[in-house]
From TrEMBL:
Protein name: Protein HflK
Naturally occurring in which organism (per UniProt): Haloferula helveola
NCBIfam families recorded: hflK
Transmembrane segments: 33-54
Functional note: HflC and HflK could encode or regulate a protease.
Membrane protein topology class: Single-pass membrane protein
Coiled coil regions, renumbered to chain: 224-251
Biological classification of the source: Bacteria, Pseudomonadati, Verrucomicrobiota, Verrucomicrobiia, Verrucomicrobiales
Record key words, sorted: Coiled coil, Membrane, Transmembrane, Transmembrane helix
Main location as per UniProt: membrane
UniProt-listed InterPro entries: Band7/mec-2_domain (IPR050710), Band_7 (IPR001107), Band_7/SPFH_dom_sf (IPR036013), HflK (IPR010201)
């Protein structure tokens, strides 16, 4: 027991003891291991970079140190590793398109449309041949026909195609009036742009095939669009009235011509009939005259009898009396109706 007035004695604190783990066996170290690991990695990278796959709609174009080497069809293919051979896959079976003046979101083609609205607005603003403004949106559909020409003959072929399409479209619109561009000239513009664009692509040897050029929205500037709509409605009404009048004309004129032709045919037939009858009467008269000259008395008697045979039946029932008869009653039977002859 401690007689002093200090604090009581405390038991000594125990130091925490670390858990004891079994010692790991020491692996033998070899300098050759440092060389073996990089060789394995290089070998794996070489094997991994030696094979590539070409999809069904693509063609693989192989270049060796930047120079064209060959093209390969779809399937699993082999090439030299470590960047010696490089492969560019070109979708030759895919229908691609470029939009001008507008853009469809979610497009797979990076050059399908301009990303900014000011650029799209500038694309579709055009001037016609009569110095009027028009807003034209169109689409160009194309395919890659020759992948080597597409990759190596022209730098940025898609952008070059966009510039060529816009230039040719402005030329075609500039050769026409605003009424022709906005109404009846759409098909002619599409055909002209398609032909000229394909000729220019062939001249540049871009390896592209232009399939279709299609005009979408063709409108006047927004400031005059309401006035243009009124003019367009008036033109449509005029065309409707013209078509209606042409329909009436086509219905009535052929009908009148048919009636006129029928009347002419009837008159010609009647004239031929009268001429034939007159010629027949003349021939019969000549024949009778020839007989009359041969036997006048007999001919005169025969003509008289034939004439009376035609005239008497038309007179109805008649009673003929002999001029020498003295009285009428003995000869007339009033109780019986005379038998017609």
């Amino acid at each position: 027991m401690n007689d002093s007035f200090g604090p009581p004695d405390l038991p000594p604190q125990r130091q925490p003891q670390m858990p004891q783990f079994p010692e790991l066996p020491k692996l033998p170290f070899s300098p050759k291991l440092l060389l073996f690991v990089p060789l394995v990695l290089v070998l794996l990278i070489g094997v991994w970079s030696s094979f590539y796959t070409v999809e069904a709609e693509e063609v693989g174009v192989v270049t060796r140190f930047g120079k064209f080497q060959s093209t390969h069809d779809p399937g699993l293919r082999f090439k030299l590793p470590f960047g010696i051979d490089r492969v560019q896959k070109v979708a030759v079976e895919r229908q691609q398109k470029q939009e001008f003046g507008f853009g469809t979101q979610g497009a797979s083609n990076p050059s399908q449309f301009r990303k900014s609205a000011p650029e799209q607005q500038a694309e579709k603003q055009m001037v016609t041949g009569d110095l009027n403004a028009a807003l034209i949106e169109w689409v160009v559909q194309y395919r890659i026909q020759n992948p080597t020409e597409y990759l190596f003959n022209v730098r940025n072929p898609d952008e070059t195609l966009r510039d060529a399409s816009e230039s040719i479209m402005r030329e075609a619109v500039g050769d026409r009036t605003v009424d022709e561009v906005l109404t009846v000239g759409r098909q002619a513009i599409e055909a002209e742009v398609l032909l000229k664009l394909q000729e220019l692509v062939n001249r540049y040897e871009m390896g592209l095939r232009i399939n279709q050029v299609q005009l979408k929205n063709v409108d006047p500037p927004r400031d005059v669009q309401s006035s243009f709509n009124e003019v367009n409605n008036a033109q449509q009404q005029r065309e409707e009235l013209i078509n209606k009048a042409n329909g009436e004309y086509n219905r009535e004129v052929p009908k009148a011509r048919g009636e006129a032709d029928r009347s002419i045919s009837d008159a010609e037939g009647y004239a031929i009939q009268r001429v034939n009858e007159a010629e027949g009467d003349a021939a019969r008269f000549n024949a009778l005259y020839a007989e009359f000259t041969k036997a006048p008395t007999i001919t005169r008697q025969r003509l008289y009898l034939e004439t009376m045979a035609k005239v008497v039946p038309a007179l109805g029932n008649k009673i003929i009396l002999d001029e020498d008869a003295k009285q009428l009653l003995p000869l007339l039977n009033l109780d019986r109706t005379p038998t017609p002859r």
